[in-house]
Design brief:
Strand content: 25-35%
CATH class of the largest domain: Alpha Beta
Number of domains: 3
CATH architecture of the largest domain: 3-Layer(aba) Sandwich
Strand order of the largest sheet: 11-12-13-14-15
CATH topology of the largest domain: Rossmann fold
Helix content: 25-40%
Structural class: alpha/beta
Bound molecules: malonyl-coenzyme A, adenosine monophosphate
Distance between the termini: 48 Å
Low-confidence stretches: none
Largest sheet: 5 strands, mixed
Oligomer: single chain
Number of strands: 26
Length: about 500
């Protein structure tokens, strides 16, 4: 909530630029308080009730998040392009009784809201009436649930408290020198920490301007970067890759370095930044990307320095307030040059997995959160080496569970067995790919893709399909994913 409390320091500054309209911090406070009171209805406090909301990248997204927090609820953002199955899963898993949306998604969500007896609120209606005062919210209360895929089949809800969020933001504001003079464009999905915390919340904490671009459009991003207004930019490596392609093919390699001189910081994260992409970006724009490492459960953990050497292929050092250790399989803490699992401690680390006490307990060891990522320290800089599970795939910056896709594919009548793997890919980092043992009739990949489209978000749908009579197995008789990868 500190991010909201700070708003009164810069009431007349622009907080959000959305759809060409500037909204000041004063408006944001007022509109979110009106909605908060409407949410409260006849109660005094939502008392950590989860409140789901589906809104695009626009002003009302922020209004709604702030309203839920001020009414004492837990914010549960839903991805706008997820199929109804995935939306329903999150609504059921969180037990949300309120669903907030706008004209754009209202009719799409109405059947679910009716079926689940949810209170459906449309922020585009202007008759949101006032109620009583707003509750006091202590920092240890739960604030947000973000869904993340893991080594279990279904995504888990990562619960963060206000205190966690305050520390996650504060750490980045300090490390990356945020100030009220900053202007950032937000082009990332708003159901993950990168778009919500690193971009939107850091900007608002600092009194800066967060400009939402509703659609992801490389031409528009270039236009904004070259406009002279935007001075901070953050994206996943796939986006830098696509911006480079656009510069080559559509901007005809226009010289842009002079036009980008005013930009003070460009950050890459959520997946490994390939060194050629970093080098190419530098040669085009003159900017050395700052690569950092993070995770839904911890916010950001490691970052190359704002001032000082940003080393390619490395993710720098622990951020302020974050303690990191590398631990080998025997539980021994590793020194420089020895690989180990990244474990994290600090106020930035999440509270729990929603309704999953066992999973929460299993993921901590002596108070250290076990990330599942393997790293080493190379001349004082952390370097991510990989993950300890082949079943976690990162594609376009999204984390994807191979098991989740396999379980869904197995429901298809013509899929007898299947294995999902991530194949290295220059553009996407990893490309979701599948090897299938078909039933009597071999399905074609286009039909399978279409069938999957109703059951999972687009970025999880496998792009490569191969069909085999058997899957490669290891000595234990289990499918060998490393051998499956070699088939592509
Ligand atoms: C989409 N396509 C893919 C794909 N995703 N192909 C292969 N692999 C994938 N993963 C296809 C589309 O279906 C489309 O195909 C074509 O690529 C072009 O689509 P597009 O419109 O250009 O791209 P789009 O899919 O809309 O978006 C690309 C993107 C998006 C990079 C903008 O993936 C994105 O916003 N990623 C960011 C995710 C993120 O914020 N992660 C942070 C998580 S938090 P066709 O055939 O239809 O043309 C976290 C912690 C931390 O990780 O450290 O930050
Ligand atoms: P998510 O669960 O979507 O938050 O994804 C977190 C995961 O993204 C981490 O566990 C890492 O595997 C990966 N990740 C984030 N940043 C980086 C980076 N800079 N380099 C490599 N992997 C990264």
């Amino acid at each position: 909530m500190k991010v909201i409390n700070k708003a009164s320091r810069h009431l007349n500054q622009t907080a959000i630029l959305s759809g060409g309209v500037k909204y000041t911090y004063r408006q944001l406070l007022r509109d979110s308080q009106i909605l908060a009171r409407f949410l409260l209805f006849n109660s005094k406090d939502l008392n950590e009730a989860p409140v789901a909301f589906m809104l695009g990248r626009e002003y009302h997204y922020t209004v709604t998040q702030w309203a839920i927090w001020q009414a004492g609820g837990i914010a549960v953002p839903l991805h706008t392009s997820h199929p109804l199955e995935s939306i329903k899963y999150v609504l059921e898993d969180t037990g949300s009784k309120i669903l907030i949306t706008n004209d754009q998604f209202l009719e799409q969500l109405r059947p679910i809201a009716d079926e689940m007896s949810l209170r459906l609120i449309n922020v585009d209606e202007n008759n949101l009436s006032l109620n009583t005062g707003l509750p006091q919210i202590s920092p240890d209360r739960k604030a947000m649930i973000l869904y993340t895929s893991g080594t279990t089949s279904k995504p888990k809800g990562v619960v963060t408290t206000h205190n966690n969020i305050n520390h996650q933001i504060q750490s980045l504001v300090e490390a990356w020198h945020w100030s009220k003079e900053d202007h950032i464009i937000n082009i990332l999905p708003l159901h993950h920490v990168h778009g919500i915390i690193n971009i939107m919340s850091c900007a608002l904490w600092s009194g800066a301007c967060c400009e939402f671009l509703e659609e992801w459009d490389p031409g528009l991003i270039w236009e904004k970067l070259l406009s002279g207004k935007v001075n901070v930019f953050m994206a996943v490596p796939t986006i830098y890759y696509k911006l480079i392609r656009y510069w080559e093919e559509d901007l005809n390699e226009k010289p842009v370095q002079e036009l980008l001189k005013h930009i003070r910081l460009m950050v890459s994260g959520s997946a490994a930044l390939p060194i050629p992409v970093m080098e190419m970006w530098k040669s085009i724009t003159g900017h050395t990307l700052l690569e950092r490492y993070g995770m839904t459960e911890i916010g950001m953990g490691l970052s190359n320095p704002y001032l000082g050497e940003r080393r390619a292929g490395h993710v720098g050092q622990p951020l302020p307030g974050v303690t990191i250790q590398l631990v080998d399989e025997d539980g021994v803490v590793q020194e420089e040059n020895k690989p180990g699992e990244i474990q994290v401690k600090g106020s930035t680390v999440f509270h729990s997995y929603w309704n999953k006490p066992e999973a929460t307990k299993d993921t901590f060891s002596d108070g250290w959160f076990k990330t599942g990522d393997i790293a080493d320290i190379n001349n004082g800089y952390y370097r991510i080496l990989g993950r300890n599970s082949v079943d976690i795939i990162k594609s376009g910056g999204y984390k994807i569970s191979a098991l989740e896709i396999e379980n869904i594919l197995l429901e298809h009548p013509q899929v007898r067995e299947c294995a999902i793997v991530g194949i290295p890919d220059d553009e996407w980092g990893e490309m979701v790919s599948c090897c299938i043992i078909p039933g009597n009739d071999r399905p074609d990949s286009a039909t399978l893709k279409e069938w999957l489209r109703d059951r999972m978000p687009g970025y999880k749908i496998p792009r490569n399909y191969i069909f085999r009579d058997a899957l490669p197995k290891n000595a234990m008789g289990k499918v060998s994913k490393n051998e499956v990868k070699k088939l592509f």
